[in-house]
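Narrative of activities, Objective 1.

The group set out to show that a structural description can be obtained from nothing but a protein's sequence at a throughput compatible with the screening campaign. Below is one input-output pair from the validation batch, recorded exactly as produced.
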Amino acid sequence: MCWSFYAESHHGFHHFCGRIRVSHLSDFVHHPEPDEAGNLPMSWPMLQMLTSVDYDSDSIFFNWTLGGFNAHAVHHLLPNICHVHYLKIMPVFRQTAKDHGIPYMEMTYWESLKSHFRFLKRMGQYEHTEPTEFNQDNETQIEKVDRKKYLEPV
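Output recorded for this entry:
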């Protein structure tokens, strides 16, 4: 019985770390700080887009096995929509973000996992963690994001 508990706990830990945590702990995401009044310098929807990474969001397998957590920005912006609809929503979601110039970070699972470990390495070395520029054609580009463009008050 003890081994069963250990095995399930171990599996749950790796599921959380390897599938869900990569959506927010990435070297591409922003970690905005509130001002003295406790307010963030952006809208709530923009906060969700800048602090979430999606991976393989068109994957039927990931959508089914992870309950849509691989489409994490949609999960945060549309919490009342069941994940079974995400595959139909994603093309509209992508196009809307593109039409309005809103950054949308989407990559393969392996890219998100590599990004997660780069972020952890920086954190372990006490490096300042400015987000890495996300470019759909070259996810590992090292240029810095012009944060002022997205951090304007709404």
